[in-house]
Amino acid sequence: AGTSRIGGLSDKQIQKYVKETGFAPSELEFLYRRFKSLCKRGDTLSRADVADNEHLKTNPYVNRLYSVMPKNEFGEVTFDTFVTTAAVFRPGKDINGKLQFIFNLFDYNMDDTLEAHELSDMIRTVRPDIADDENQELVKKTMEDILAKGGDLY
């Protein structure tokens, strides 16, 4: 087995992640340390770890991100998932992968469609300061734009 170069990652794991994600070893070191600092109950990131973290628990983006990340059999995020999720947004990565990930963030019921109430929830997340009538007007305008461009609402 390769000796540990980064915290608990072996040289073999580092090589694997460099190849799969495009991150440099120094970037992997940063991500691994950040991940481990978030994991208060072991080697995986639990919903409780996020909920108990003062900097994360009130951030709606973090909560949605955690919700859509693949989990292990215990419902927790592994470092492997953490690093491959972070890699989606690296420069040069496929735009379709990025768009699919962002779409999934706002497809709250995971039915592969964005419904009006999901769009409304998304707007509320991004702009909690706007009034309900303005939110509904944005939803209506967005839906009209989608249809005008030949899109399908369902």
From TrEMBL:
<keyword id="KW-0813">Transport</keyword>
<keyword id="KW-0597">Phosphoprotein</keyword>
<keyword id="KW-0677">Repeat</keyword>
<protein>
    <recommendedName>
        <fullName>EF-hand domain-containing protein</fullName>
    </recommendedName>
</protein>
<comment type="similarity">
    <text>Belongs to the calcineurin regulatory subunit family. CHP subfamily.</text>
</comment>
<feature type="domain" description="EF-hand">
    <location>
        <begin position="94"/>
        <end position="129"/>
    </location>
</feature>
<dbReference type="GO" id="GO:0005886">
    <property type="term" value="C:plasma membrane"/>
</dbReference>
<keyword id="KW-1003">Cell membrane</keyword>
<keyword id="KW-0106">Calcium</keyword>
<keyword id="KW-0479">Metal-binding</keyword>
<keyword id="KW-0449">Lipoprotein</keyword>
<keyword id="KW-0539">Nucleus</keyword>
<dbReference type="GO" id="GO:0005737">
    <property type="term" value="C:cytoplasm"/>
</dbReference>
<dbReference type="GO" id="GO:0005509">
    <property type="term" value="F:calcium ion binding"/>
</dbReference>
<dbReference type="GO" id="GO:0005634">
    <property type="term" value="C:nucleus"/>
</dbReference>
<keyword id="KW-0653">Protein transport</keyword>
<dbReference type="InterPro" id="IPR002048">
    <property type="entry name" value="EF_hand_dom"/>
</dbReference>
<dbReference type="InterPro" id="IPR011992">
    <property type="entry name" value="EF-hand-dom_pair"/>
</dbReference>
<dbReference type="GO" id="GO:0015031">
    <property type="term" value="P:protein transport"/>
</dbReference>
<keyword id="KW-0963">Cytoplasm</keyword>
<dbReference type="InterPro" id="IPR018247">
    <property type="entry name" value="EF_Hand_1_Ca_BS"/>
</dbReference>
<dbReference type="InterPro" id="IPR051875">
    <property type="entry name" value="Calcineurin_B_homologous"/>
</dbReference>
<keyword id="KW-0519">Myristate</keyword>
<keyword id="KW-0472">Membrane</keyword>
